[in-house]
Amino acid sequence: MKKExxxxxxxxxxxxxxxxxxxxxxxxxxxxxxxxxxxTIPVSQHIGAPCEPTVAVGDNVFVGTKIADSEAFxxxxxxxxxxxxxxxxxKVKVASxxxxxxxxxxxxxxxxxxxxxxPCPVNTPEELIAAARNCGLVGLGGAGFPAHVxxxxxxxxPIDVLIVNGAECExxxxxxxxxxxxxxxxxxxGIYLIKKILGLKxxxxxxxxxxxxxxxxxxxxxxxxxxxxxxxxxMKLKSHYPQGAEKVIIYTTxxxxxxxxxxxxxxxxxxxxxxxxxxxxxxxxTGIPLIKKRVTVAGNAVKNPKNLIVPIGTxxxxxxxxxxxxxxEKILMGGPMMGVAVTDTAIPIVKANNAVLCFNGKEAxxxxxxxxxxxxxxxxxxxxxxxxxEVELSVDFNEGAEKYKKLNxxxxxxxxxxxxxCPARRPLVETMRLAKQEIRKAGAKNA
Amino acid sequence: MLKVSSSPHIRNIENTTGIMFDVIIALIPLGIAxxxxxxxxxxxxxxxxxxxxxxxxYLWCKAIKKQATLRDLSAVxxxxxxAYNLPPTIPLWMAALGSAIAIIVVKQMFGGLGHNFANPxxxxxxxxxxxxxxxxxxxxxxxxxxxxxxSPTPLSTxxxxxxxxxxxLFLGNYPGCLGETSALLILVGGIYLVWRKVISPIIPVFFxxxxxxxxxxxxxxxxxxxxxxxxxxxxxxxVFMATDYVxxxxxxxxxxxxxxxxxxxxxxxxxxxxxxxxxxxxxxxxNLLTPLIDKIPGVKPFGYKExx
Lengths: 447, 308
What we know:
Number of helices of chain A: 13
Oligomer: heterodimer
Largest sheet of chain B: none
Number of strands of chain A: 18
Distance between the termini of chain B: 53 Å
Number of strands of chain B: 0
């Protein structure tokens, strides 16, 4: 990779929000979280059909044993993150507040890896897709979309570019950044493998400019690799929210716009999170599926913020104790822009989690809305060119799904830039979500 | 018990009160200049206007049993702007009346902050002008108290601006309303607001630009065109009143149409009407058109494809 191959963005997205970065944990090396005594692993950790347990109460499981799977196409298997015995299978509350079936495993602390696990070299696209499915890979940037569905080639939609999403635009979260520094070899190996197997012409590794170290490390390793055609390039993106959103990053790296309801494959792109590639690469090399997650623990109520590598299914309460959270009043799973505030700390860490943030005092407070002053900041902030205030008014007057569709509420990616920018603290994302829900309901009725 | 909220969980530091406070800061130099030019009575007018505005809002909210939102400082901004739109000889009770009308009739009766149908200060000025034309055009020379002349001759009509050089017009050293004469200080305030991202420069630039161009085409004299911008309240209206969020369009294209409309109507009133100013009426008329202008569709959403 030649020296001048750090690219500038291909296009600039409209709007967004200028957020404080607060990447206080950026330079903290990831610590391995000590194995918990039990893990509670939900059977639905991804977009798509929930899995069915493939083990029963009393079964012995090892690290990496498959414990749940589904026949549906859009789904991904789930594996045990510890070795031990299945204690119970019950419904637990997950971050969103709803109940989900989960497999509770009692850890025997022997850390025995499943004897069936072995390296899984891939040579063809079919083997790559099977590997992505078998390791339980879902979009680890937070969306949780089953990766093998993304990688499936479709003759009608040729793919020519892989975009490696290292943007990590939310404040506080440094999980992908640490992955870029600590798993760099795995990441580059994974990238070159995917490129070779899928026959992709171009790879863009996109990282925000507030992570210069990551850019340098990835660049240096890639420079040492065989890149005959110079087709793997690094791109320095502006650190501007919501740079990491899928549609946004496709636009800023390639200039292509993904239409409503379509996938990146429809514009010839595959987007994979940098940690997802690292996980797939490690699976191919060792056979160990997705059972651990790097999570940033931060926020003003955390005395000892850290980047932790946590077994999936660990309860948030154990992580908070380990990082010495003091009087947390608000706990977020995810970043402050799109994260979910949880109601209790028994919630387990799932595949798509990147951060646990704890706040107390002023930073834990909600916001009281005041009158809209018609300033238009929400319109200037929306990367999808929507008019959030108009949708809010429409929802307040209950104008119906047809009106919301006319206002294009279904284009919203719920990034929160509008509500962030609103000086009157109006609940713009909440009303937009209601509008989207009505559109979905009306669409389902008509189908 | 954990606190729960809907995403996003952080907000930008800037809020409504902060925006209003920035406007107040931008208006302070004008007030100081007004007091320097016209003496202590000017300070009284400003104080009474602001006090009347704040009190009206408080009493109204109390009367309809709604929480008084004085904290957002919007009443203070309205009070200041009303004071700056009055001649420095106005009886104090008229200033108070103007503030009360602006806050109660134009703003609160229609729903309070964010619901006024037209700029409150401009509407109050028009109401006072129509009700008390003599007092509202009773201008005096600045620094009259300090000049050798024992008692200045009040001008009952707007002075013809040819008698003042362009420099005096720019600095504001000519008879006019309390805070509208100094183009320089208004420019400074405007630049501050644009720098703080409180207002977009589109409306002031296009409003003043239209007035300038129109006069330039009509008279062929750029100095006269510039003096047309620096006089008659164009600068104050363009920077502080036409840019009011509530009553001006949100999208850039809407703002341009609004500002050009204001400029055109101002010039038409000046040329064909009886008044040498015209700014108040033009802003009022364009305020009324704003909901219509806002209906102009913006850019299509990201990735929009025509349904085949």
